Amino acid sequence: MNNTSFAQKKWNLMECVEYAWQHNLTVKTADVQEMYSEATLKQAKLSRIPNANFSTATGYNLGRNINPSTNTYIDLNNLSQSFGLNLDATIFNWNRIKNNILAQELENKASLADVDKAKNDVALNVATAYLQALLAIEQVRIVRVQVQQDSAQLYTVRKRVDAGAVPELDALQLESQLALDSSNLITAKSTAELNLIQLKSLMNLDFATPFEIDVPPVEIIPVEPIASLQPEDVYNLALTNQPAQKANQLRLDSKQAASKSSKANLYPTISAFGNFNTRFSNPATMITGAKLNGYGTNGDYVVIDPANPASAQPVYSPDYTVLQENRTFAQYWDGWGTQFTGNFGQNLGINIAVPIFSGYTARTNYERSKIDIKNQQVVIEQADQKLKQDIYTAYTNAVAALQKFNSSKVSVDVSQKTYDYAQKRHEIGLLNTYDLITSQNNLARAKLDLANAQYDYVFKMKVLEFYKGMGLRLQ
Fold this sequence. Notes:
This protein is α+β, with helices and mostly antiparallel strands. The protein contains ten helices and eight strands. One of its GO terms (cellular component) is cell outer membrane.
């Protein structure tokens, strides 16, 4: 939405709240935490799937080394390659994985409740700022009327001064009052602007953006009867509808499931495993043939006639040279398929891991998980107690605000009658200007007090309605 569109519309309360839900940084932070919780839950669920790891290595060995295919020493450079696949799957672990998944599911639901709580808090803060802005706008209206009255009275009195009916002092007193009320009007306008800035801040709306709010008459803002907002009834409803209470209970359930998961580490775990591997190796040179160099004797003789030593004949053997040449890169891989198949090995089995002693780690973790449960129970008790205190305080404040509002209405009625009477007396010269100004100021003060009391009453009642789960509505 561009600045022109913003300038053309007037925002009502729910539009401000919904915009804040999308852009407020507190809500965004809660959303990020929920995404983190969602990722943790996903990882917990995937832990049920067997583990699988594939490995491969290719190397070139120089000098004297072990041929990985024959496991014998050779004095030739050679190329080797190996492949391995390792699998393991948990068969039974006393529901450790199941309870861990349950714990993470409950924690994720608690994170979602945290997002709702952040939205509730932001909505209440926006409503507070919105009502303060409405009050400031009403105060501007009251003070502006006061300035208009001052101007009208000054005009009338100035004519009477010029006619010699009243002294110059009367006009000067009204000029002084007009200056004072004009200053008050400037202050009221500044306060109204500051309240709108505060509202923009809560909405995370750019401060330079044109912004105007809808101003419903305060008299038509719906308010529940105080009799239907009894604190004990509101508290019982709040226990079930407030996101903070839901999140606390979900975290207690999560910690109980986590404790069961931790306890499973005290017992044996049964798992299955499988290993599959193969290897390949070829020397850097290969035999291409042999070259016959001739025949020679090595000192051995064969006796033809044992009775005749002279019959001994020498033994001749061929003398040849083995012809070799370096393999090309393509020739390095000769026989790869044959070796891959011939060297293929498998290993399958069942593993039973029995915890005997691990520095008391498993037992300590289990004891800590039980302490976490007790701590969360205390957190719930504290939060519920604080909620009850807040509701009873809000109810007391609402009752006081209602009484003050009713009293302020009486004060305005009396001040209005007093001012009307004073104005009539002033017109016929039976009341001096100073007393008229005093009566006028009393009326203005009473109207401002009434506006404060009325908006304060509306806000206090809206807080109670909010705790009751009725949401926020001004129309």
